[in-house]
């Protein structure tokens, strides 16, 4: 395959295909990124052009999950944006528990990526449970990428993820992780509270649960306004009355959907 980049017509078709399968809005400016991500797959399939690869994705449903894995961005960290976790620990959990004694807390990590977000939440819940033995919780975690969900399921971390949590929460590393071949693996005591499922945020969630806390962080930025609106509408069908929704640092849903009431930056409550 020659290395002359994506021809304009292929790039347009590729952007349309990304939108069709994920809802993500990409522009021509992502050309180099897309080419870099698709190249190894095109070569592995011994195809002679990117267009030939798009034809495979259109024709063969089995290729779609690989395509989705390639075009999604999965950056994440344990305890990403510390102020969110301070809010959950110091305000959300005590207030929720006071208002719902005896009930099980239901959390949805809606673009879970490799799982750092959901295991951060599980650690906070474990700590809260140590002080409130009647407290119980369940975390439903979803992502459109099956490959990234497999990593979340495995719960094994290395590199930047491990360096960061070792620096910020050394005591919890000792308590909630065990050494593994690649770095650290979360203990089963956390995994026991987690269920993972593939899900496209553009569609209704298969679980009938009503969640008390929803993480929809660092994913809305990939969508245009129309699709953000769709995602927010779908998400609120799965939220309990007065549930809390948390978005990313660079995201705001003010004015997008009136069912979500602004509480403070990144935090919204259902009416
Ligand atoms: C940047 S990560 C955010 C991870 C985590 N929420 C955080 O804030 O650290 C974005 C995730 O959204 C997922 N994603 C992208 N489009 C999606 C869609 N249509 N439905 C569900 N997940 C999607 C990607 O696969 C990726 O894992």
Polypeptide structure, described:
A hairpin with a 2-residue loop joins strand 9 and strand 10 (267-270). The mean pLDDT is 95. The protein is of the alpha/beta class. It is 45% helix and 20% strand. The protein has 11 helices and 10 strands. The chain folds into 2 domains: 8-71, Chemotaxis receptor methyltransferase CheR, N-terminal domain (Chemotaxis Receptor Methyltransferase Cher, domain 1); 82-270, Rossmann fold (3-Layer(aba) Sandwich).
Based on the coordinates given, report the CATH architecture of the largest domain.
3-Layer(aba) Sandwich
CATH superfamily of the largest domain: Vaccinia Virus protein VP39
Shape: globular
Percentage of residues assigned to helices: 40-55%
The fraction of residues assigned to DSSP E strands is 15-25%
The domain count comes to 2
Number of contiguous helices: 11
Bound molecules: S-adenosylmethionine
- List the quaternary state of the chains: single chain
User: Count the strands?
Assistant: 10
Distance between the termini: 55 Å
Question: Quick one: CATH class of the largest domain?
Answer: Alpha Beta
CATH topology of the largest domain: Rossmann fold
User: What letter string, H or E per element, gives the SSE order?
Assistant: HHHHHEHEHEHHEEHEEHEEE
Radius of gyration: 20 Å
């Amino acid at each position: 395959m020659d290395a002359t980049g994506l021809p304009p017509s292929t790039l347009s078709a590729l952007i349309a295909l990304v939108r069709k399968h994920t809802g993500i809005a990409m522009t021509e400016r992502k050309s180099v990124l897309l080419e870099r991500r698709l190249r190894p797959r095109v070569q592995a399939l011994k195809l002679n052009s990117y267009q030939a690869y798009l034809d495979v994705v259109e024709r063969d449903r089995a290729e779609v999950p690989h395509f989705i894995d390639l075009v999604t961005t999965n950056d994440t960290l344990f305890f990403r944006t510390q102020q969110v976790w301070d809010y959950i620990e110091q305000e959300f959990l005590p207030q929720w528990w006071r208002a719902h004694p005896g009930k099980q807390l239901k959390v949805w990590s809606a673009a879970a990526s490799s799982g750092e977000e959901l295991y951060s939440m599980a650690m906070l819940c474990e700590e809260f449970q140590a002080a409130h033995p009647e407290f119980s919780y369940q975390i439903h975690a979803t992502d459109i990428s099956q490959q990234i969900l497999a990593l979340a399921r495995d719960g094994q971390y290395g590199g930047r993820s491990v360096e960061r949590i070792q620096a910020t929460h050394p005591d919890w590393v000792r308590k909630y992780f065990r050494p593994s071949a690649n770095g650290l693996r979360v203990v089963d005591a956390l995994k026991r509270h987690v269920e993972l499922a593939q899900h496209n945020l553009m569609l209704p969630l298969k679980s009938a649960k009503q969640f008390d806390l929803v993480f929809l962080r660092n994913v809305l930025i990939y969508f245009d306004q129309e699709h953000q609106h769709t995602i927010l509408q779908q998400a609120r069908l799965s939220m309990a009355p007065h549930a809390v929704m948390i978005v990313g640092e660079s995201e705001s849903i003010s004015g997008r959907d009136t069912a979500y009431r602004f509480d403070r930056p990144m935090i919204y409550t259902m009416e």
